[in-house]
Amino acid sequence: MLKSLRSKPVAIALVSILMGTTAALAAIKIAPKPTTDSVTVYSEKSAGEVILSHQDGTIAFNRKCASFPCQLDISSLSKGEYDVMIRNGTDIQQMVALYKE
To answer: How far apart are CA 47 and CA 67, in angstroms?
Structure first.
């Protein structure tokens, strides 16, 4: 299998992207899960913009955090599952794991 991957640069690039995505997923932590009105976001990054989006990709909430951990008041959001992203310039970390009760 490795021989076939070496002969296909696109496959190698895809594997690299997937491995990078896995590392990004591990870098974000959220507590408590599930939550009702506030959540604390933990990241290895020093600062960034936290974006919560609906499953269809529309943005539900965003806030710049000067440092992590960063506590967010999400009491105005409706119940459901949200994707959580941290953006710092062009660097984006993502995790799908926030459920608001």
So the answer is: 5
For Cα atoms 78, 82, 87, give the angle at the middle one, nearest 5 degrees.
125
**Statement: the pTM of the whole predicted model exceeds 0.90:** no
Residue ranges of the chain whose pLDDT lies below 70: 1-26, 96
**What would the pLDDT profile of 49-68 be if each residue is shown by its tens digit?**
999 999 898 999 999 999 99
Q: What does the CA dihedral 83, 98, 14, 27 come to, rounded to 10 degrees?
A: 120
Q: What are phi and psi of 45, to 5 degrees?
A: -70, 155
pLDDT of residue 93: 84
84: helix, coil or strand?
strand
Ordered alpha helix ranges (H), 8-79: 9-26
Phi/psi of residue 43, nearest 5 degrees: -150, 155
Contacting residues for 85 by C-beta, under 8 A, at least 6 apart: 50, 51, 52, 53, 92, 93, 94, 95
